[in-house]
Amino acid sequence: MSPAFAPPRLVAHVVNRLDCGGAGNGLLDLIAHMPGERYRHAVLCMRDHGMFHADLREHGVEVIDLHKREGADLGHFLRMVRALRALRPDLVHTRNFGGLEGQLAAALAGVRLRVHGEYGREFGRESGHAPAEPGRARAPSLLRRALRPLVGHYIAASAEQERWLIEQVGAEPSRVSHISNGVDSLEFHPRLGPHAAVGPDGFMHDDAFVIGSVGRMDDAKNDTTLVEAFLRLISSPHASHGRLRLMIVGDGPMRAECQAMLDRAGAGHRAWLPGERPDTAQLMRAMDLMVLPALAEGSGNVLLEAMATGLPVVATSVGVHKELVQPGLTGILVPPMSPDVMAAAIADYCRIPEMGARHGARARAQVIAHHSLPAMARSYLAVYDALAAS
Questions:
Q1: pTM, whole model, 2 decimals?
Q2: Mean pLDDT, to the nearest integer, of 296-303?
């Protein structure tokens, strides 16, 4: 069959979970912007497909849940091998350490073309930027090195991850591509008027200054530091701090602890933690500032979405935050686990709205110029095509 009439190749993406924040949006955006006449897609999800199940199926993507249990679970691996044999994909693309075992499953299923992407969370623990139990950081590194011969090509979402794959995992430089994430600047755009009426009764008011954060609420995302900073601000005597509201969008094991901290301080009515939401873009437009307190960050999807929305950013000086935030121009970088420094940065934006407007406008211009979804999709397409040609 001539190449012009060849059927689209099938890519099977293997992920640990698809929850609120960067991972789900990033995969959905990639699939939506890849040429359908060249590639079609399926997703194998180890644990939770979350709210993205319906969105993926709208794009004609088959979603297969592997129902992985906590702890040792051989059953999900056997189900993955069987699913890959049934799908017969042309290429398997695994993501992060949670999906890495898909490289072995793909090899056992006879899939010749294999890509692995590193987008952040587990990478942070292994490189010392996020907490890990003794011994836990070493095991993933050993497994990564053991499976390295199976990986045809690596994709790193940041320059830091690219260096780490080469220097620590031992990947050949010619087999690693740095592809920055992209964002839909039409979906994520600045608000055009006053705050939308979001949240429960009494949460939003006309003069509110809304501090926002989005993502999975786990220990690496470190939302408790943001809550501590917020509580310091509202307990200070500065008059403008009565305007402050806190919105943390996402779910995870730290959500209950954050809510309890707010309730104990008598600040529950000034905060809204709605869990996972399908309307992240609209909720970002109700924010005045994005704060990202993570101990490690490799993908930067939420950061780019906030920048596209025209929000100034206060982010910890870790990982891809250091590559994307221009201090004093698009945001402020603060040390991790430093609620006092974070509170001071937030207070500056609350006190000087003109600075927030300038930084937000520059942030959006940066995203439009350097982080478009079509450019990201073209980079992935080049990797897939090169592997297929080999």
A1: 0.82
A2: 88
